[in-house]
Amino acid sequence: MSTSSHSGALRGAALVVVWSSGFLSAELGAAHAAPGTLLAWRCLVTAVVLAPWLPAACRLLDRRDWVRQAVVGVLCQALYLTGVVHAAAAGVPAGTSALVASLQPALVLVAAALAAGRRLTRTQVGGLLLGTAGVALTAVADLGSGTALVAMALPFVAMLALTAGTLLQERWSRHPGDSVPLMPGLAVQALVTAGFAVGAAAPAGHLAPPAAPGFWVAVAWGVVAGVSSYALYYVVTARDGAQRASTLLYLTPALTTLWGAASAGRTPPALTLLGLVVSGAAVALLQHSHRCSERVRVASSG
Fold it and tell me: What would the 3-class secondary structure string for 98-136 be?
């Protein structure tokens, strides 16, 4: 394995681990406070943690960069986190939210293909169908156990927002001169997301935090997982492409489900496990297709 391949594998593995943990922090926090309260304080603390990079953002980013980072922040963080946190509060299991979010590769692949005027390969279509089937199996299992259909729609809204933000992020960082330094960009996004979350929580009277230690554990967990996962996600998107970053999300549901089951001392339903296996097969197909496409691209450019 080459050095670049090894680095890419490490980036991918780290992304899967930290992204998975974020769903569990939302589930933990939902047990102690209203979703708006959890989201507001998670975003506020994140903005404070990233505040040291704001002076660099003011120095390095022009008005266009600020607008772009604000748009990506609203889509990839504010709307995405709102959907995930509210889904957890409505009783959607962390593993299910992760699995629904992992449908994002399907949309990214289709959107990228349409934008480039090319057709999807049979392998890609097979991977997309398998991934969708895996999500459907898990959703059926959760609906059968009492999760409301409306609640199941929340992770889908989050996934759509993340997809749009991912495509814009890749488009705006395609040329070296347009790329934004990682930490200043995240600081701007965190500032915008905090304003969004506080603006939504304050009028509803959900800004005051509870005294429960579990709430602050969930906030701290969410901040660490959030900063790490978004930093890795943007790095993978910029260096390995949106398709690679999005496809890796197919691997997060299995880890999230296993972590959640272990922490609660329960065994996941058989249908949920089947959905994870099917989604795993989808990952294999999509990754194989991605590697083949890269080999063709390198060969044609050589």
Answer: HHHHCCHHHHHHHHHHHHHCCCCCHHHHHHHHHHHHHHH
